[in-house]
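Sample pair:
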Amino acid sequence: MPDETCQIPSGRTAPDAHPGAAGPPGGLVLVSTPIGNLQDLSPRAIAALRAADTLLCEDTRVTARLCAVFEITATLVAMHDHNEQGRIPQVLRWLAEGRRVVLVSDAGTPLVSDPGFRLVRAVLEAGLPVAAVPGANAALLALTLSGLPPQPFLFVGFLPPRGAARRAALAQLRAAERAGLAATLLFYEAPHRLAESLADLAEVLGPRPAAVAREMTKRFEEVVRATLPELAARYADAPPRGEITLVVGPPPQEEAPAEADLDALLQAALQGHSLKEAVAEVTAATGQPRRVVYARALALGGR
């Protein structure tokens, strides 16, 4: 019986047989941290964290607990949405001096609905190196478990917290679909807003298949698959706990643009804008003639 060997497909490169042999990367390093299960922190991530001189983190208390478990002694420096811009000159000086700086978020992949984008842009513009150690990501994990088409997908992040703004944002997505977008949609959501968001999704996007992924990699991990109206009803009666990712299937392929879509867009836009602003927004989003959009807006009671 021949030996079983691992064949690398043509055009692909085999993984490094000696991970970490070249040492941790220098410059600014983005390290993904576990989203619930500490065993998901890779040996390469641990090596990068241990080699760091400075750890930039959202909440030093959260990262301190991770450091205690893995015996990481780097200096912790808070960097979040409110102080990121002010931290950039200091970080650039550290990198220019040769210090190893690692950026982590409280959980998951840095920059994905977390701070860091402005810093990365500044480091790149300064001609300094940026590297990353991949790892856990709740959105991608939820997508793979949802049973919905995995590609193409569109990661939206958090929807606006207020109802009118949320429906307007969903109306823009719906307009993009009418223009040809056909992707599985990924959202993050707070548990106390889940039922309202599901109801708005059902109203704007229709009764599509969807999944609510909760507490990924944690003890009470759960994925509930149903239509948007069914999920809205379920969580209206039983608000969930924990971190939530929503996965919504793409529009049906046979779907054709309808007047009802225009009405839905206008109704959402009119809730937060004047008649003139709403008409301009929906005209731009749909490509419909302004006179048609204006007439429908008047028929819907816009003033």
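The longest strand covers residues 153-158.
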